[in-house]
Amino acid sequence: MSERKISQAVISRLPRYLRYLGDLKDEGVERISSHDLSVRMHVTASQIRQDFNHFGGFGQQGYGYNVDYLYDEIGKILGLDHKHTLVIIGAGNLGQALANYMNFERRGFITMGLFDKNPKLVGKTVRNLEIMDINEAPDFIKKNNIEIAVLTLPKAGATEISKQIVDSGIRAIWNFAHVDLDLPDSIVVENVHLSESLMKLSYKISRGAGDEE
Amino acid sequence: MSERKISQAVISRLPRYLRYLGDLKDEGVERISSHDLSVRMHVTASQIRQDFNHFGGFGQQGYGYNVDYLYDEIGKILGLDHKHTLVIIGAGNLGQALANYMNFERRGFITMGLFDKNPKLVGKTVRNLEIMDINEAPDFIKKNNIEIAVLTLPKAGATEISKQIVDSGIRAIWNFAHVDLDLPDSIVVENVHLSESLMKLSYKISRGAGDEE
After folding, report:
1. Residue B173: which residues within 8 A CB-CB, separation 6 or more?
2. Domains of chain B
3. How far off is chain A from B61, nearest CA to CA, in Å?
4. Strand partners, A87
5. Is the ipTM of this complex over 0.90?
6. Cβ contact, residue pair A109, B189, below 8 Å
7. Do B202 and A78 touch (CB under 8 A)?
8. What pLDDT is attached to residue B1?
9. Across the interface, do B201 and A147 touch by the CB < 8 Å criterion?
């Protein structure tokens, strides 16, 4: 596949394409034109064609896209064609919520361990995983060659543990802590700052506007 | 304040400014130059000045910004200078995690009710709130003049309840369901699609790049 440098904006749209294509698969639709897809997704057909052109096009002129094929190809681009191992560090409400979220597993993201510093949580079982002491996380990551660490703990703890697990060979951090982590460029970081999302909502309410991004 | 039409990109950056200014306040810093703030935030001083110019500038040339003043002003722009009422619909792990998250309350977002359709959850208490039956949500929203509904339930349920609560006068929806809601333009919607965030992470791992946005 001839793949140029793709912009973040295009990448950000791929999971949404995948979601709609998954729905189409569930409905038994085999082919769809960029026009019909654009109507469903409330974007222009031209944007869809431009986005897909970054990855070689996927489709045949005037014949529409093969839904199964397109679904698989976008999945491959997103790295969903193989399993990813993860640990969740911080086993409070949010950590447990993520551990219990079946959809991630269906997508190939396998939770291998759960950690917390709270002795009341350590030893408790969530989704067949016994919560371990946070001090064991770096060794566990190293031994099990874990790819992704999900940080669902307060910001001081997140900053500290992130530095420790970098040395254990972690490749990516999915960061829910309300802090920007200062890590080597080789580590992939994706932030989910829930408070910031809520503030954007609040801004839009104040402005009286319902202009969704 | 002379406020022109502000781009989504600028708005998206305001909560991050607020977070850094909050840290500065905690450290007892009273004034900060755009240069010093830029070093902390890893953005350019020019971007900071440009962003703040959208709101009249906030600062005095060569004298730096007053941290308290700037914090309060950005808070006002984000609508954080008054309370917001919300209900959480879907009291599973994620809904309970959000209900238990103290930070939202500190920011003025007050959880007034929790709802679920699962009879096993209804009647259970979370943070002093008794989980109510989802069928009571529309009336509760109307009677209590609730501003924000947080949707933490599967997509079929989210689509259905969102239509019902629109008629109850809800002003905004913070949507965690993995679906795009089709609602009147007057309703503010902010989506948090966790699976999509995880897929972006996976994409970046596949590409071997740690290029954070």
Report:
1. B148, B149, B150, B151, B162, B165, B181, B183, B187, B188, B189, B190
2. 8-77 (1.10.10.10), 84-196 (3.40.50.720)
3. 28
4. A113, A149
5. no
6. no
7. yes
8. 43
9. no
